[in-house]
Design a protein that fits this description.
Layout lengths: L8 H12 L2 E6 L5 H16 L3 E6 L16 E3 L9 E5 L17 E5 L10 E4 L6 H12 L5 H14 L10 H11 L5 H9 L4 H12 L2 E3 L4 E6 L1 H7 L21 E8 L2 E8 L5 H7 L3 E2 L3 E6 L6 H17 L1
Parallel strand pairs: 1-2, 1-4, 2-3, 4-5, 5-6, 8-9
Antiparallel strand pairs: 7-8, 9-10, 10-12, 11-12
């Protein structure tokens, strides 16, 4: 990876802080996904390459489908931190509380995020909503630090971009995305092989669950909204666990008529809702109205105490954004 002059003032500040310091803590949001994991692992590898001391701490373990990621075992799962660090780098968290790790407050905080609505809680806030994934920003930071892009780091960044763009189907993809992927491919990694690890290693339980969910799928708003619902009893019935749900929410979008998907999962926390959409249908608006967040085509939220009419309220708001996009 060749060196270049950072173009963002915040990127310059972050680069200088990381080059000056010696010890760093990296974290991201609870229930990690491909972007949070890839971003953390890529940046940690770059910092270690430069002789820095780095710990990655998350509140929840990675889903099994990411077990192939290099250095995944270096991520520590803890509830709180007390050790001293020169800075804490929080990746892909619109709000510090989303990390789910206690003890982060009162430390030098670097906030790197691409989600709309970031709370700007850091001492340095680099917020770029044009990035298709937080890993795009991490790639720029790794470049600015002068680190060498290894195949392992390239794998981390590629997995992050691949998953956060919905396999290059979401509307937040730019020429920058493909330029980064070009440089990733030049390291010699096998993009098709990486994609196979992510998408072709599911359990038989996941396959059965997919059939059950699609069989019970409901269509609303002139068949333009697909509604999927799952609970623990269904998971037990088909023999799978919550990790097997990863990516299933996207399946109904394969139908031309379906414009948005509402995926509802009953949990101990309440009703967890994931939203997906096509083109300019802004499901983030819906998620924000229920206290959540996300992106234009991918968002989510949790309703702690769902009422009998919660489902109807959610569908009404999704229908509204579909109608708005048609006007």
């Amino acid at each position: 990876m060749s060196k270049k002059t950072p173009v963002h003032a915040e990127l310059t500040q972050i680069r200088d802080m990381l080059l000056k310091g010696r010890s760093f803590l990296l974290t991201s949001h609870a229930r990690p996904d491909g972007d949070s994991l890839g971003s953390q692992l890529a940046l940690a590898a770059a910092l270690r390459q430069l002789g820095k001391q780095v710990r990655i701490i998350n509140s929840d373990p990675a889903p099994d489908l990411y077990a192939f990621l290099p250095d995944l075992s270096t991520i520590e799962i803890v509830a709180s931190v007390e050790d001293r660090f020169d800075a804490v780098v929080v990746l892909e968290c619109s709000d510090l509380s989303r990390a789910g790790v206690a003890g982060l407050e009162g430390r030098p905080l670097i906030n790197i995020d691409h989600h709309p609505g970031n709370a700007m809680y850091g001492d340095i806030n680099w917020h770029d909503v044009s990035a298709c994934a937080c890993a795009e920003m991490v790639f720029e930071l790794v470049t600015a630090l002068g680190a060498h892009l290894t195949p392992a780091m390239a794998t981390h960044v590629y997995v992050a971009i691949l998953t956060d763009t919905g396999s290059f189907r979401h509307a937040n993809i730019t020429a920058r995305t493909f330029e980064i992927c070009r440089q990733i491919a030049e390291t010699g990694i096998d993009p098709a092989g990486v994609a196979a690890h992510v998408y072709n290693n599911g359990s038989l339980g996941r396959l059965r669950l997919t059939g059950v969910l699609l069989d019970r799928m409901q269509l609303e708003h002139q068949r333009r909204i697909a509604v999927l619902a799952v609970n623990d009893a269904m998971l037990t019935e088909v023999g799978c666990d919550p990790d097997d749900l990863e990516g299933i929410v996207n399946l109904p979008l394969a139908a031309q008529r379906v414009r948005a998907v509402v995926f509802m999962k009953e949990t101990d926390e309440g009703l967890r809702v994931s939203l997906r959409s096509k083109e300019g249908i802004d499901v983030r608006q819906v998620a924000v109205s229920f206290g959540g967040g996300g992106h234009l085509n991918a968002a989510g939220f949790t309703v702690e105490h769902p009422a009998p009419d919660t489902r109807g309220q959610i569908l009404a708001r999704v229908a509204s954004v579909i109608t708005d996009s048609d006007e």
